[in-house]
Design brief:
Blueprint (H helix, E strand, L loop, with lengths): L8 H18 L3 H7 L4 H9 L18 H12 L5 H13 L1 H6 L2 H13 L4 E4 L15 E5 L2 E12 L6 E7 L10 E7 L5 E6 L10 E12 L3 E2 L5 H37 L1 E2 L2 E2 L4 H29 L5 H26 L9 H9 L9 H10 L2
Parallel strand pairs: 1-4
Antiparallel strand pairs: 2-3, 3-7, 4-5, 5-8, 6-7, 9-10
Helix pairs in contact: 1-4, 4-5, 4-8, 4-9, 5-8, 8-9, 8-10, 8-11, 9-10, 10-11, 10-12
The structure holds flavin-adenine dinucleotide.
Length: 381
Amino acid sequence: MADPACITEELRLLREQLRRFVAEEVMPHGDAWEREGRIPRSIYKLMGDMGLLGMRHPVAYGGTDMGPVASVLFAEELARSSYGGLPASVLVHTDMSSTHISRRGTDEQKRKYLPGIISGDTIVAIAVTEPGAGSDVAGMRTKAVREGGEYVINGSKIYITNGVHGDLIIVAARTDPTAKGSRGISLFLVEKGTPGLIIAREMDKHGDLSSDTAELFFDDMRIPAANLLGDEHKGFYAIMDNFQNERLVLAGSSIGASAKAIELTLDHVRNRQAFGATLWDLQATRQRLGMLATKVSAARALTYSCAELETRGIDCVREISMAKVLACEVHVEVVNACLQLHGGSGFIRGTPIERMTRDARIQTIGGGATEVMLEEVAKRM
Ligand SMILES: Cc1cc2nc3c(=O)[nH]c(=O)nc-3n(C[C@H](O)[C@H](O)[C@H](O)COP(=O)(O)OP(=O)(O)OC[C@H]3O[C@@H](n4cnc5c(N)ncnc54)[C@H](O)[C@@H]3O)c2cc1C
């Protein structure tokens, strides 16, 4: 696939570095991580040493501040590993959670947390979703009450990536009980080990098995008032703002995984003999893969154009919502078609295409379900 103009020489070098990293450090171990249900800390440390975890953080705190285009490329390459749990876990750390600290943290918070986040010593999670509030973020009920120099937090969160093995959780809670809906929500920095923070269970999932997912309870969890992240009561707007990063990298990871699934399938159909020739010799196969590659290219072009708009500071909520829908829906379509073309072998547990089909399923749900994204588009039509 030809690269868009925003992929500079520097980013091409980054891509080469990422491809080597995936080939040498991920592919030999990916199956074991799936069984263990986690990405090992050593991988975070290695990525930190390679300068891969600070791309969205300021240079002053040890980051490289490479911007949204680099984030999309990073997401694409991690997903090309074929192990969806890797981008799920790492992108939550780099683009979906810790960016709140860079954007809204005090100097003291940045100095305290960013170096460890960038080096891979401190793994971060973001806890917004609740059992009764998913797509409808404003419906959250977890409460944070100020008592002197502390906040006391009570409530629960569900489906929290990195919630089991992470070290720092950015928790959203309602700070103004009288405010309705999106008003009166704030963000907090909660360190693992804080009394009252309970990891209720590690959730068993359909896919992305190597990323850990937790249900959390907060039982009179006390944190210093200094751990308020950003302005009090303005957390909902911070969450919506950071959703743009989140949706861009989700689109990026869907594009990378789709391209990989097509590559694996091309390899399969060109070798698989049937009816006196290969599956590739059947026009239906060629045209199906041709159409899928066309859709992935369109999603890729849209996603990178959004990353460019973001870089230029142009409001592109509508376009990012479109990119998230298109890339993630195409992803699900691609893996289903690729499994079909693999025949029975695609249905056997542990083959890449079988795993990729399971991993793809969350992409149209998490970080803004397709229908929610389409509402964002429609509101701006
Ligand atoms: C593996 C995994 C990891 C996750 N990681 C995190 C994390 O790290 N942090 C975090 O805070 N959350 C996380 N989530 C939560 C995720 O973002 C939510 O699951 C998602 O926002 C959808 O919310 P919900 O599951 O409550 O579905 P609901 O809100 O109940 O929606 C269910 C379905 O209803 C439909 N729907 C919803 N709204 C509309 C609408 N307006 N119009 C039409 N149809 C609609 C959609 O089809 C949607 O899929 C994760 C979830 C999973 C499964």
